[in-house]
């Protein structure tokens, strides 16, 4: 697969300059092959006829009818899991791999991917390293959810590859490992690049031994939204740049940040990324995204929605790269708060960065417990952590678009999800009942 990854990387470094019309043609060629495969080989699509709307009497695809293809929701994918597996895949797709999502949205989704999709994902990551100006790293430490129980501390697991002509070791450790043990593992491995969930990486950076003087080249954040505070903490404690990747285990890589310019480029060559509603309808420009990965013939996901919300950057490109860009990824529906009026609100818009002026904390989390009540829970080792309660409450109330009671509460710890993820914003009320 190393040779395939290298070839695809070389292609990606050219396709990023395609004009929009060329990219549309490129994507439709990949989409057509995937759709025809799904219609013939995947029981979920074949038996339901949900792709038939695309085809005319001559069996040609009418692209103007793409929006009529029903979206595939995460619960729908879970309910039809086995029927989404292809009976056969083209031989060039390589071997099958099985996995499951971390379950941080609820019930895990079991999935299959083929080597072709995995190679594309590795090439996209490598393009991000090229954008960052990094020579090929020889060692990467990846702290992630490992569903089968492998990669446990202290050894984790390791595999090798050759990328850009340079041998590489990828060390993997389960994200459920305690932060202190993650720090010991990193101190032993001394990797060039570290990759993991951003909020956990921020805690990990703060736990690195003071005498640890290893020079990291880059920290890669994936698996959850990277807040400004998490990024600042990571870059301060690891003493290097952070690079954000938007991806999903079953979807592959969706967007990669240029660590130099802080622009997040959509991976147009490997997935069709579209607003579910066809256009941004919220005042903040956010839309729920529908994703169609091009290369996973083992389990095609066509117009797949997971509850991810993002805003597209509509400004002109700053250089020759013509890939669309995301202004920011807001998170998933579970991060969406519900105001007293019933309107939905993304709390990441709060000026959380300024909270440090009034509160000494090691970790914090905003939890909406009722429509009109939000708790700011924090962990702190300071003797007197609240510097100015009145000013802090005034800042929070001013940030909320409607009158809401804010409660500041110190807690001994803020638990991570079983997958190892941690979220700074969490709605703890039933959204369906609240709506």
Description of the molecule:
With 435 residues, the protein is α/β, with parallel strands linked by helices. It has 2 domains: 2-332, 3-Layer(aba) Sandwich (Rossmann fold); 336-434, GMP Synthetase, Chain A, domain 3. The protein is built from 10 helices and 22 strands. The strands form 5 sheets. It has a 12-stranded mixed β-sheet with strand order 5-6-4-7-8-9-10-11-16-15-13-12, sandwiched between helices. The longest helix is centred in the N-terminal third of the chain and has 22 residues, at 20-41. It is globular and about 75 Å long. The model has no long low-confidence stretch (mean pLDDT 89).
Describe the secondary-structure layout.
Layout lengths: L1 H14 L4 H22 L1 H6 L23 E2 H6 L16 E5 L9 E5 H17 L7 E6 L12 E7 L2 E9 L4 H11 L3 E4 L1 H10 L10 E4 L6 H11 L3 E7 L3 E6 L6 E3 L4 E5 L11 E7 L10 E2 L2 E6 L11 E8 L4 E2 L5 E2 L17 E8 L2 E7 L9 H11 L5 E6 L14 E3 L3 H4 L1
Parallel strand pairs: 1-14, 4-6, 4-7, 7-8, 8-9, 19-22, 20-21
Antiparallel strand pairs: 2-3, 5-6, 9-10, 10-11, 11-16, 12-13, 13-15, 15-16, 17-18, 19-20
Helix pairs in contact: 1-5, 6-7, 7-8
Mean pLDDT: 89
Largest sheet: 12 strands, mixed
The number of distinct helices, counting runs of at least 4 residues, comes to 10
Shape: globular
Radius of gyration: 22 Å
Structural class: alpha/beta
Task: Return residue spans where pLDDT drops below 50 for at least 5 consecutive residues.
Answer: none
Short descriptors:
435 residues, alpha/beta, Rossmann fold, GMP Synthetase, Chain A, domain 3, 2 domains, four-stranded mixed beta sheet, 26% helix, globular
């Amino acid at each position: 697969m190393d040779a395939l990854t290298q070839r695809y990387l070389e292609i990606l470094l050219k396709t990023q300059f395609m004009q929009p019309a060329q990219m549309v043609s490129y994507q439709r060629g990949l989409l057509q092959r995937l759709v025809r495969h799904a219609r013939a080989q995947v029981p979920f699509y074949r038996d339901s006829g949900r792709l038939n709307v695309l085809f005319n009497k001559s069996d040609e695809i009418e692209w103007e009818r793409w929006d009529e293809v029903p979206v595939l929701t995460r619960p729908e994918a879970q309910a039809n899991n086995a029927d989404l597996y292809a009976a056969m895949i083209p031989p060039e797709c390589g071997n099958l791999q099985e996995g499951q999502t971390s379950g941080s949205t609820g019930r895990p989704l079991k999935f299959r991917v083929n080597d072709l999709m995995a190679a594309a994902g590795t090439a996209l990551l490598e393009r991000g390293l090229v954008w960052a100006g990094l020579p090929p790293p020889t060692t990467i430490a990846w702290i992630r959810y490992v569903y089968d129980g492998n990669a446990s501390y202290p050894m984790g697991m390791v595999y090798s590859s050759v990328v850009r002509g340079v041998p590489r070791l990828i060390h993997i450790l389960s994200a459920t490992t305690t932060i202190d043990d993650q720090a010991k593992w990193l101190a032993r491995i001394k990797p060039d690049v570290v990759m993991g969930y951003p909020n956990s990486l921020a805690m990990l950076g703060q736990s690195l031994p003071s005498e640890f003087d290893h020079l990291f080249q880059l920290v890669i954040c994936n698996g959850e939204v990277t807040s400004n505070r998490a990024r600042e903490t990571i870059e301060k404690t690891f003493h290097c740049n952070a690079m954000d990747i938007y991806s999903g285990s079953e979807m592959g890589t969706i967007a990669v940040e240029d660590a130099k310019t802080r622009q997040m480029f959509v991976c147009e060559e490997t997935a069709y990324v579209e607003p579910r509603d066809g256009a941004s309808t919220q005042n903040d420009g956010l839309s729920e995204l529908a994703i169609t990965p091009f290369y996973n013939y083992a389990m095609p996901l066509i117009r797949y929605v997971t509850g991810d919300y993002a805003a597209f950057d509509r400004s002109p490109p700053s250089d020759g790269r013509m890939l669309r860009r995301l202004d920011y990824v807001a998170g998933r529906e579970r991060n969406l708060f519900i105001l007293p009026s019933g309107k939905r609100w993304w709390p990441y818009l709060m000026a959380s960065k300024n909270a440090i002026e009034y509160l000494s904390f090691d970790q914090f989390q905003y939890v909406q417990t009722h429509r009109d009540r939000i708790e700011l829970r924090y962990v702190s080792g300071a003797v007197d952590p609240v510097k100015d309660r009145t000013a802090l409450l005034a800042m929070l109330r001013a940030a909320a678009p409607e009158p809401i009671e804010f409660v500041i509460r110190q807690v001994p710890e803020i638990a991570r999800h079983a997958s190892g993820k941690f979220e700074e914003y969490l709605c703890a009320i039933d959204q369906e009942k609240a709506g």
